[in-house]
Amino acid sequence: MTVSPAQQLPKLQGSRKQIRWAEQIRTAIVTAMEQRIAERIAVGGLGFDRRFLAAMRRFAAELRGHTSAEWWIYNRYRRYGDRDYLDTIIRARMNQEEDEEL
Fold first, then answer.
1. Is residue 1 in some structural domain?
2. What is the pLDDT of residue 102?
3. For residue 29, what are the domain limits?
């Protein structure tokens, strides 16, 4: 049986109630992120940007690393699964990384 990255997440910190709620939020967000990454890989061809995909994977890893239940609850309304919203975040991060390299 294959275990998805959404199932390989670090333990959350917080009250039992916060953890139960945050686990649901986190699973939904991480699953949506994984779907967006899979879509990017599937599209391939023209316009496929390996740097963008790498930045997206770094961002997904950063999200998966959050262990505070409170953080997930607080950020539950962010549209990390929305392609346009996510693309905007990733491109802004890529620009920031380029600026830092200069």
1. no
2. 67
3. 14-101
